[in-house]
Design brief:
The protein is α/β, with parallel strands linked by helices. It has eight helices and eight strands, in the order H-H-H-H-H-E-E-H-E-E-E-E-E-H-E-H.
Length: 257
């Protein structure tokens, strides 16, 4: 396919599982220059262009197409995603909300300087192995998706302080979590977890634990002696009547929703 006269490309509102070659060529074509002019590093600008192509709202795409104008990237940021950059032009923080990004998450994992990543309500079913590339990540929020398993590759995120997997389909907190030595906040509420594993006690840095609205029946002894403001286990089918009555009310901000 020749792209000499192609000025616009919109792929929003689809469920594409493979990014076509012609689209990649378009991304790497002159259109990417607008990001370079805005001060982005070229490798990161390509990722932004891919997000832009897939996340233009339907009404906006139709409107811009009719006028024959090139849309303003800042308008897209306000509606679907946002970013922050460091002084060198690398993306340090990225957020995507309420759009089916599918395979694009693999591309996002090429943002090697990323420190904060928010992917919320994007119908993600699997955390890719490539997540391990984000070595400087300190916050990962993948809430309101369809994730059913925490992959082994996540233990490579040595600087991770906050892990939020609320409102997914996870049924187990794997032992690999204990390799996250700097983890301070773990949120796995509104899942299908049946037990709070004992190894969580070994995590010296862990200060906040959100396991509310799961299927947990036995409450481990280590949780019973924790200060109530440090955890939330309400709305579980707890067998222990005393601790069922004492289950703390939610004390987590919207940050953990």
């Amino acid at each position: 396919m020749k792209l000499n006269k192609l000025d616009h490309l919109y792929l929003n509102g689809n469920k594409i599982e493979l990014f076509p070659n012609y689209a990649i060529k378009f991304v790497r074509n002159n259109a990417i220059k607008k990001y370079i002019k805005m001060g982005f590093h070229e490798s990161d600008a390509e990722i932004l262009r891919i997000l832009e192509i897939f996340n233009v709202p339907n009404d906006e795409a139709n409107g811009f197409s009719a006028r024959g104008e090139f849309f303003d990237v800042h308008h897209v940021i306000k509606s679907c995603w946002y970013y922050k950059t460091n002084k060198s032009g690398y993306i340090s923080e990225l957020g995507v909300r309420e759009t089916d990004i599918g395979f694009i998450l693999d591309y996002i994992c090429n943002l090697r300087h990323l420190k904060k990543l928010y992917i919320i309500k994007c119908n993600i079913k699997k955390i890719p192995k490539s997540i391990k590339k984000l070595k400087f990540l300190n916050l990962l929020k993948l809430s309101k998706n369809q994730i059913d398993k925490i992959p082994r590759s996540i233990k490579k995120l040595k600087f991770l302080n906050v892990l939020n997997l609320n409102k997914n389909q996870i049924d187990k907190i794997p032992r690999l979590i204990k390799f996250l030595k700097l983890l301070e906040k773990l949120a796995v509420g509104h899942n299908k977890i049946k037990e709070a594993p004992y190894f969580l006690k070994e995590m010296k840095k862990l200060r906040f634990l959100d396991i509310r609205n799961n299927l947990i029946k036995p409450i481990p002894e280590f949780i019973k002696v924790m200060k109530q403001e440090l955890y939330d286990y309400h709305a579980n089918p707890i067998k222990d009547v005393f601790y069922k009555n004492k289950a703390p009310k939610p004390k987590f901000s919207d940050y953990f929703e």
